[in-house]
Design a protein that fits this description.
Layout lengths: L10 H5 L5 H13 L1 H12 L8 E6 L4 E6 L2 E2 L1 H5 L4 H4 L3 E6 L6 E5 H17 L7 E5 L4 H13 L2 E4 L6 H10 L4 E5 L2 E3 L2 E3 L1 H9 L7 E5 L13 E3 H7 L11 E2 L3 E7 L7 E6 H15 L7 E4 L6 H13 L3 E5 L10 H9 L3 E4 L1 H10 L2 H4 L8 E5 L5 H11 L6 E4 L33 E4 L11 E7 L9 E2 L3 H9 L6 E9 L5 E6 L3 E4 L2 E4 H9 L4 E11 L3 E10 L7 H14 L8 E4 L13 H8 L16 H15 L3
The structure holds adenosine-5'-monophosphate-propyl ester.
Length: 653
C-alpha cells in the first residue's frame, strides 16, 4: 500500500471552490474545538426557521440520547421549496428521465410547490395528519419525490420501501411502524421488465391491518385490480379535490421524526432507522453543498433509487434544500445498453455524477466505447458511494468517464449517519484511489482495537467509531430504543460503532475495509446474514443454513449459502431453484445467493456456534487458510465442505 498514486486537486476544481485546503483545515479545527458553536452557526445559515432553537445539543452515548436544536421549529418542505420561490421559482428543481431514453419531464420550484401543495391537500383529505406513518412503494417517478415532500409538509413520517422488495418485506415494514396509508403505482418499469407493484402491494396489505387507504399512481396503461373503499387513484383524486386547499405547512419541532428507513443489521429483522427533522435536514444540506462543491448552475445526477438513504439525502433533500437541480433516473444503467448513464449526462448536461462502485465495475466491463460515444464535457465532478471502490474501478472512472479532469469524491457513510461522513472535498483534498480520505468538517472518527482501545497516530488498522454526535445521525430504531443503544453504543461504550473496519494510512487518510459484523454488502445493498439464512430455511428444504460474503468482481461481494438439507430432500438443481425462489420471494432478488452448496454439516463450536470465519475462508477459495479447527465439535466437517466446494467450483456451480 505504500505506493498509492496521489491525484492532486485539479486546477479547474480550485477556481470556484467553496472550500480549499486551508479553509478546510481551519474549519475542521474550529468544528472540533467547538462543535456546538460550529453547528449552531451552520443551522442558522443554511436552514429557515419558524422559531429559533434554544439548546444546540444534548447528548449521552451511554443512554443513546441525541437531541439537536431543541426549541426550534421548522418545516422540511418549506426549506426545500417555499423559501426558493422568490429567487428560484423558475429554476428547474427536478428533472426526470424515464425508463425509455428521452422520455423526460421536469418541474421548476414553482411547479414542484404546486404539486406538493395539491398532494398535501389530498393526503389530508384521506385523513393523514402529523405523526402518522405513510409507506411509499413507488418507482423512480416525480410522484415519489412529491409524495415524500407532501408528507414532510404535513409532518407525517414517510417510510420509503424500495420497489424491488417483495410483498413480505413490504408487509413487515408497514406493520413494524403501523402505516395508515400506502402509496404505490399500478406498475413499474425497469429496463425491459415491468414490475407488478400493485399486485405485490395488494398481497402485502392483505396482512396489514393498519392500512386504511392505498393511493395508486397510474404509471402505465396496464389495468390493475382496485378495492372499493380502500384503493384510490392518485390523479383522479387530485382532480376531485381541485379548488380546495389544505396545504399549510406544519411547523415541526427540531426533534420530531421525519422519516423511517429500514436497513439490515447483523441480527434479526431489518430495523427502522429513525431520522428527525432539523438535524437530518441540516446535515443533508451542509454535506451536499460541500462534498459536491455546489455551484448555482449544477445539474446533479445521483443514480440512487429514492428507496435508499442516498436517494433521500442526495436526490431529494440535500439538493432541494440548497435550491439545486436534481435528476431522477427511472431506468437501469444497462438499458437499452451500457451507455445509458452517459446518454443521460449528455442530454441533460449533468455536471455531477454520483453512483456506486458496482455500477462502475459493471459498465467498465462492457467497454469504453459505451462511454466515449457521448459527450461528458458538462461533467466537473464524479462521486461514489455504498461500498469500497477498488483502485482499478476508480482509475477507469477517473480516466475514461472523467477524461482525467474531474475529481472523484469517494464518500463513506451509512443509512444511520444521514449524510456523508468521510470524503475528499473537490477543491481541498488530493485523492488516492480506494480511499475515502478525510473526515468532513464536524466529524470525529476514531479507530479502536477489538478491546475498544483507541489506536492513535497514523498507519493503524482497527474498527471505525465516531466519538461525538453530528446532526444527521439517526436518533433511534423505530419502536425499539434499546436495540438502538445495543447495536451502536454497547460494543465500545461511549462511542458510536459503525460496524466497519478501517485503516488510517501514513498520511492520515481513511481506507474503509468493509464490515466486521455479519452484514453483507452485495452490489452496494445491505443485507444481514441472519435475514438471508432465515429466508433460505423458509424454503422447507433446508434444516440449517449459514451464509457468508464471497468476493465478486462486479457486485463487490456475492452470497454463498452453505445448506444442510432435511433428510428426505435431494441435493439437486430443483432444490436449489426452490431455495433461490424462496429468497427472492421473502426478501428480494437482491438477496439471491450466488452459490448454494449442500453440505452434510456446518462447522460449529462445542457450544453450537457456527464458525463463520472458516466458511468465509472457504468461500474466498483459501482452503488452506481456514485456521485452527480444534475447537470444533466435529473438525471433519471442514474437509468435507472443502472438497464439496472445490468440486462445485470446478463444475462452475
Ligand atoms: O460498509 C460501509 C459501506 O456501506 C455501509 C453502509 O451501507 P448503507 O447503510 O446501505 O448505506 C450505503 C449508502 C450510504 C457502510 O457501513 N460503505 C458505504 N460507503 C462506502 C462504504 N464502504 C467503503 N467506502 C465507501 N465509500
Amino acid at each position: 500500500m505504500s505506493h498509492n498514486p496521489i491525484f492532486p486537486v485539479p486546477s479547474q476544481a480550485l477556481t470556484r471552490t467553496r472550500m480549499n485546503s486551508s479553509q478546510y483545515a481551519e474549519s475542521y479545527a474550529q468544528s472540533i474545538a467547538n462543535p456546538e458553536e460550529f453547528w449552531a452557526a451552520q443551522a442558522r445559515e443554511l436552514l429557515s426557521w419558524r422559531a429559533p432553537f434554544q439548546n444546540t445539543l444534548d447528548w449521552n452515548f451511554h443512554t443513546a440520547t441525541i437531541k439537536w436544536f431543541e426549541g426550534g421549529k421548522l418545516n422540511v418542505s418549506e426549506n426545500c421549496i417555499d423559501r426558493h420561490l422568490e429567487l428560484r421559482g423558475d429554476k428547474v428543481a427536478l428533472i426526470w428521465e424515464g425508463n425509455e431514453p428521452g422520455d423526460t419531464k421536469s418541474l421548476t420550484y414553482r411547479e414542484l410547490h404546486r404539486a406538493v401543495c395539491e398532494t398535501t391537500t389530498l393526503l389530508r383529505s384521506l385523513g393523514v395528519k402529523k405523526g402518522d406513518r405513510v409507506a411509499i412503494y413507488l418507482p423512480m417517478i416525480l410522484e415519489a419525490a412529491v409524495c415524500m415532500l407532501a408528507c414532510t409538509r404535513i409532518g407525517a413520517i414517510h417510510t420509503v420501501v424500495f420497489a424491488g422488495f417483495s410483498a413480505e418485506a413490504l408487509r413487515d415494514r408497514i406493520n413494524d411502524c403501523s402505516c395508515s396509508i400506502l402509496i404505490t403505482a399500478n406498475e413499474g418499469l425497469r429496463g425491459p421488465k415491468t414490475v407488478p407493484l400493485k399486485t405485490t402491494a395488494d398481497q402485502a396489505v392483505s396482512e396489514c391491518p393498519t392500512v386504511r387507504h392505498v393511493l395508486v399512481v397510474k404509471r402505465t396503461e396496464t389495468p390493475c385490480p382496485m378495492q372499493d373503499d380502500r384503493d384510490v387513484w392518485y390523479h383522479e383524486s387530485l382532480n376531485s379535490i381541485a379548488g380546495s386547499d389544505n396545504s399549510a405547512a406544519e411547523p415541526m419541532d427540531s426533534e420530531d421524526p421525519l422519516f423511517i428507513l429500514y436497513t439490515s443489521g447483523s441480527t434479526g429483522k431489518p430495523k427502522g432507522v429513525l431520522h428527525t427533522t432539523a438535524g437530518y435536514l441540516l446535515y443533508a444540506t451542509h454535506t451536499f453543498r460541500y462534498v459536491f462543491d455546489l455551484q448555482e448552475d449544477d445539474v446533479h445526477f445521483c443514480t440512487a433509487d429514492i428507496g435508499w438513504i442516498t436517494g433521500h439525502s442526495y436526490v431529494l433533500y440535500g439538493p432541494l434544500a440548497n435550491g439545486a437541480t436534481s435528476l431522477m433516473f427511472e431506468s437501469i444503467p444497462t438499458y437499452p445498453d451500457a451507455g445509458r448513464y452517459w446518454d443521460v449526462v449528455e442530454r441533460h448536461k449533468a455536471t455531477i455524477v454520483y453512483t456506486a462502485p458496482t455500477a462502475i465495475r459493471a459498465l467498465a466491463k462492457e467497454g469504453d466505447h459505451f462511454v466515449t460515444r457521448y459527450s461528458r464535457s458538462s461533467v466537473r465532478l464524479l462521486g461514489t458511494v455504498g461500498e469500497p471502490i477498488n483502485p482499478d474501478a476508480w482509475l477507469w472512472y477517473h480516466s475514461v468517464v472523467g477524461e482525467g479532469r474531474c475529481p472523484i469524491v469517494d464518500t463513506w457513510w451509512q443509512t444511520e449517519t444521514g449524510g456523508v461522513m468521510i470524503s475528499p472535498l473537490p477543491g481541498a483534498t488530493p485523492t488516492k484511489p480506494g480511499s475515502a480520505t478525510r473526515p468532513l468538517v464536524g466529524v470525529q472518527p476514531m479507530i479502536v482495537d477489538e478491546q475498544g482501545q483507541e489506536l492513535f497516530g497514523n498507519d493503524v488498522t482497527g474498527r471505525l467509531c465516531i466519538r461525538f454526535p453530528w446532526p444527521g445521525m439517526m436518533r433511534s430504531v423505530y419502536g425499539d430504543h434499546e436495540r438502538f443503544r445495543q447495536t451502536y453504543f454497547s460494543t465500545f461504550p461511549g462511542l458510536y460503532f459503525t460496524g466497519d473496519g478501517c485503516r488510517r494510512d501514513e498520511d492520515g487518510y481513511y481506507w474503509i475495509t468493509g464490515r466486521v459484523d455479519d452484514v453483507l454488502n452485495v452490489a452496494g445493498h445491505r443485507l444481514g446474514t441472519a435475514e438471508v439464512e432465515s429466508a433460505i430455511v423458509r424454503s422447507g428444504a433446508v434444516a440449517e443454513a449459514a451464509v457468508v460474503g464471497v468476493p465478486h468482481d462486479v457486485k463487490g461481494q456475492g452470497i454463498a449459502a452453505f445448506c444442510v438439507l432435511h433428510a428426505e430432500v435431494l441435493p439437486d438443481a430443483g432444490t436449489k431453484m426452490k431455495i433461490l425462489a424462496t429468497v427472492r420471494e421473502v426478501i428480494s432478488p437482491i438477496a439471491t445467493p450466488d452459490h448454494v452448496w449442500f453440505v452434510a454439516g456446518l462447522p460449529k463450536t462445542r457450544s453450537g456456534k457456527i464458525m463463520r470465519r472458516i466458511l468465509r475462508k472457504i468461500g474466498e477459495g483459501e482452503y488452506g487458510a481456514v485456521g485452527d479447527v480444534s475447537t470444533l465439535a466435529d473438525p471433519s466437517v471442514v474437509a468435507d465442505i472443502v472438497s464439496l466446494v472445490q468440486a462445485a467450483r470446478l463444475s462452475k456451480d
